[in-house]
Specification:
Radius of gyration of chain A: 23 Å
Number of helices of chain A: 12
Helix content of chain A: over 70%
Strand content of chain B: under 5%
Oligomer: heterodimer
Order of helices and strands of chain B: HHHHHHHHHHHHHH
Low-confidence stretches of chain B: none
Mean pLDDT of chain A: 82
Order of helices and strands of chain A: HHHHHHHHHHHH
Largest sheet of chain B: none
Structural class of chain B: mainly alpha
Helix content of chain B: over 70%
Strand content of chain A: under 5%
Number of helices of chain B: 14
Distance between the termini of chain A: 11 Å
Chain lengths: ~300, ~325
């Protein structure tokens, strides 16, 4: 990796931020699937924000006379048993998916990464307790832990967010733990300690900047995973309460009318899949673009 | 190796202990008195209960004791095989679980074996025929497998093969000892759904680690010695490239159990996953508590075995 050598020679040299950014853009936009994913995500966010203007019908109240209508001019994707427009519910469902995804990823990443950081940085008994607790949480399949919590807390979207955050904590904690350990071993940290720098300075100046690129990748990939998990929970009937729209529960609602009106279940499932795929592709693209080991190769 | 095994065993004991703590305290410290929930179940019978009777009941169930004592009693019960009595089914949880576990285990095991072996095979083929159609198809398939909601895949299969083509029964479960042919036909779709996620992950991991290994010098040496491709791949490359795949084998057990909750719901299969879902809606916290405990114990023990075999296969781990 010859282009990085120059920065080692003189500390006074400005970091090559422009070329870094350019390289990021070049690698990131190289693959068509990544661009495809980005377009899907942009559409998703747009749909979620402008749902009231985009939805052709009321997603919560339908006309009983139009119950189970097949796709037609008035209802592009047909209607469910209560005569509610599938397309409108699909559009409003994007809000549920994004809200659950972003909130649970945000909470879990913040708490999990902090736990991992503390465990890795301070070591000893703290490390032991935190990391074994994370291992224990790992022992529950995500859906089962969510079921366990839902059975106590009751259904409801906020409980789904709590449950999913809990279930995904260990991933962030383990990642941050490993990273902190590896950064802590560096000689420049030792040198800084010798000069009397504080823990806070080491953490904010060295550990966190090293952690942020892979963390961005992890968070993006987790967003897809969480939307998938949320759809599973709402398929089971845990999560958003009726008449609220969630893609998973729409699949479940259409289940009984599979033969009469398969679109009811097919459309929301396809939406879930597209969005999860998009997050995965963008996550992969970010990983390629942010991984320093791939510098010079891509 | 012995120290490594002992260390892993001790760690597993600690983890299991924390699991019991999580399961127990999740139920006791969160809002909602279990007794009130229990009484809520009985409310339908029309009997009203006074504050005094509540006290008596509380005493009877040991809920007036310090929480630590309650925990110890509960744990002792578990060790004696007493998983509690279901509020909803009015039966011993151990009996409920024993009836349903074979079903989940049968489907899960078949899906697990198929998923892992097919995943490794596909990943291997994709890597050694990199850039060909096999690689393209496998990569696309793996991407779909990771992103597809399994319950939705179940519906698609049910629609196509059950309702439209009529090749397979749409749902249900039959013991293979009762009617082997029907049992096999009913197993096809649930097993596809249960195996797809694990299969996709395994295929992806095998492909990338295989690509890593076949770049190594010793593989080039093997080629230049004039060995046959089959020998190089099977004897030299595959063994080493499977080491990172082994970690996924442990995770795969969790995927199968998590998936069984959804798949058993879709196909109306009377297994543990279905039991847990019905219990959640019946607010039968005893069943949910014990069920989660049993499943996570299995997963932790399975991961222990995976870790130990990992150390056995890769000396770098056990001396690390």
């Amino acid at each position: 990796m010859p282009e990085k050598q120059s920065t080692l020679l003189g500390a006074s040299e400005a970091p090559p931020s422009v070329s870094e950014w350019r390289r990021f853009r070049r690698v990131f936009f190289q693959r068509k699937l990544v661009i495809f994913g980005l377009v899907i995500l942009a559409l998703l966010v747009f749909t979620a924000i402008f749902a009231p203007w985009l939805a052709p019908h009321d997603p919560y109240r339908g006309k009983m006379s139009d119950s189970l209508s097949p796709p037609c001019k008035k209802y592009i994707l047909g209607t469910d048993i209560q005569g509610r427009d599938t397309l409108s519910r699909l559009i409003y469902g994007s809000r549920t998916a994004l809200m659950v995804g972003f909130l649970s990823v945000g909470i879990a990443a913040l708490v999990g990464a902090s736990l991992g950081l503390v465990a890795g940085y301070f070591g000893g008994i703290t490390n032991m307790i935190i990391m074994r607790a994370m291992d224990a949480l790992m022992g529950f399949p995500m859906l089962l832990l969510a079921l366990l919590l839902a059975s106590v807390l009751g259904s409801g979207i906020q409980n789904v967010i709590i449950a999913l955050s809990f279930a995904t904590l260990p991933g962030y904690a383990r990642f941050m733990h490993g990273l902190t350990l590896s950064v802590r071993e560096n000689d420049y940290i030792l040198a800084e300690k010798a000069m009397g720098s504080s823990h806070a300075r080491t953490i904010f100046k060295h550990v966190l900047p090293n952690a942020s690129p892979p963390m961005i990748v992890l968070v993006t990939l987790m967003l897809g995973n969480l939307i998938l998990a949320e759809s599973g929970l709402s398929f089971l009937g845990i999560g958003i309460k009726p008449p609220g729209a969630a893609w998973g529960s729409m699949v479940a609602d259409g289940y009984q009318y599979l033969l009469m009106n398969p679109v009811l279940s097919f459309a929301p499932g396809l939406a879930i899949m597209l969005v999860v795929f998009a997050f995965n592709m963008v996550g992969d693209g970010l990983r390629d673009a942010l991984d320093p080991r791939l510098r010079g190769l891509l | 190796m012995t120290t490594y095994i002992i260390r892993r065993l001790l760690m597993a004991v600690v983890i299991l202990f924390i699991v019991t703590l999580i399961v127990f305290f999740a139920m006791r410290l969160l809002p909602g008195d279990p007794l009130i929930i229990f009484l809520g179940q009985q409310a339908g019978s029309g009997t009203t209960i006074t504050e005094k009777e509540l006290e008596v009941l509380r005493h009877e169930y040991g809920l007036d004791r310090p929480i630590v004592i309650q925990y110890v009693n509960w744990l002792t019960g578990i060790f004696q095989g007493n998983l509690g009595t279901s509020i909803h089914y009015h039966e011993k949880v151990s009996k409920l679980m024993l009836e349903r576990f074979p079903v989940t285990l049968q489907l899960g095991l078949v899906a697990y074996v198929i998923g892992n072996s097919l995943g490794i095979l596909l990943g291997l083929l994709a890597a050694i025929r990199r850039g060909t159609w096999i690689d393209t198809v496998t990569t696309a398939f793996a991407n779909i497998g990771i992103t597809i909601p399994v319950f939705w895949l179940g519906l698609l299969l049910m629609y196509a093969f059950g309702l439209k083509l009529g090749w397979l029964p749409i749902a249900g479960f039959t013991s293979p000892f009762e009617n082997l042919w029907l049992s096999l036909k009913q197993m096809v779709m649930p097993c596809i759904c249960l195996s797809i996620t694990g299969l996709a992950f395994i295929a992806r991991q095998t492909r990338s680690s295989m690509l890593e290994v076949i770049k190594q010098d010793y593989i080039r040496t093997a080629w230049s010695k004039g060995l046959k491709e089959r020998v190089i791949i099977m004897r030299h490359a595959l063994k080493n490239s499977l080491i990172p795949v082994i970690t996924l084998l442990g995770i795969g057990i969790g995927i199968v159990f998590g998936g069984s909750v959804l798949v058993e719901t879709v196909f109306a299969i009377p297994g543990v996953g279905r039991l847990l879902v019905t219990s959640v809606f019946a607010q039968d916290y005893v069943v949910v508590q014990s069920g989660t405990l049993v499943i996570s114990t299995i997963i932790i023990l399975a991961n222990l075995i995976v870790d130990i075999s990992y150390g056995w296969l890769d000396p770098r781990i056990r001396y690390g």
